[in-house]
Amino acid sequence: xTATGQAARRVLHFLLPGGVDDPAAPSGxxxxxxxxxxxxxxxxxxxxxxxxxxxxxxxxxxxxxxxxRRLARLPDGAPVLLDGLVxxxxxxxxxxxxxxxRMAVLVHLPLGDETGLAAxxxxxxxxxxxxxxxxxxxxxxxxxxxARRLIALHGLAADRVHVAVxxxxxxxxxxxxxxxxxxxxxxxxxxxxxxxRLVEALGTVAGTPWTCxxxxxxxxxxxxxxxxxxxxxxxxxxxxxxxxxxxxxxELAAAYATADLLVLTSRAETYGMVVTEALARxxxxxxxxxDGVPEAVxxxxxxxxxxxxVPPGEAAALSGxxxxxxxxxxxxxxxxxxxxxxxxMLDGWExxxxxxxxxxxxxxxxxxxxx
Length: 371
Fold this sequence. Notes:
By secondary structure, the protein is of the alpha/beta class. It contains 15 helices and twelve strands. A six-stranded parallel β-sheet has the order 2-1-3-4-5-6.
């Protein structure tokens, strides 16, 4: 193959959900997609991002037809990476093109694992996702936990499921506030992120000095946000718990800089990028030990855990962990030291991009379409 031909085969078409760049609705998945678009060229791939508007993963007919049109325009044998939110719910669009195009799907969260789904819709999304993932050539998960989950859930061959863990940007050490009282939760305000659990736990430690900022988008589940506001008021925490809305860039960095402890009380979390964002600044973590969160928290070089992990759904454990943090200076010192040790071990987005590039190179090695 000529040099020109080799370069052409290193072009990647990356199909993304519409709104991936919406600053009012930041998410870990959107951040991941944007960052790998920026990082993959250094790993040898020229990326053509293509955001497809629609109510994914259950799009309206027009969005489904538009996705089909965009795939049909791609040349035979083109490497294509699809965000799982776009691809996994529409196997009737993906499967007919899978023999012609070299497709991989990037799964941030199995569709049926979304919190709040009724049993019937969850089963339908799970079945659709299974058909999609069996049709494409490679599957990428964003944590080792998620890879194991997809293999077990859908009966996928282990050698077709790969891991590309989110990176963490280097950041200065957070000075914090007073080393104890400034709590920060960074997550979209939704039932899956379960900020109500945090608010209830904070109500049990109201006799100690602290403030808590809930940073995250509030548009997706307005009724949940209303209930959360009401509960904050009922507990008399209006002057201590702030629903700060979405933040990014310098505003988000400033929120981390004043944080003494990151708190994440999610019901489900494929990885938990905010965990590593906090640890990159030496901020310890208090989190529910769900899914991929322990993987993100990790360990410092001395084997210590840079945070407190509590069982999901155990309110007493969460309240107890908060009391321990607020009352025990030795514990705080130990966790901060561990967080700083873990900080030095975090991989950047270049590692993520090289993991993805290895998967994309596998796509190129698979025999192309026969027609």
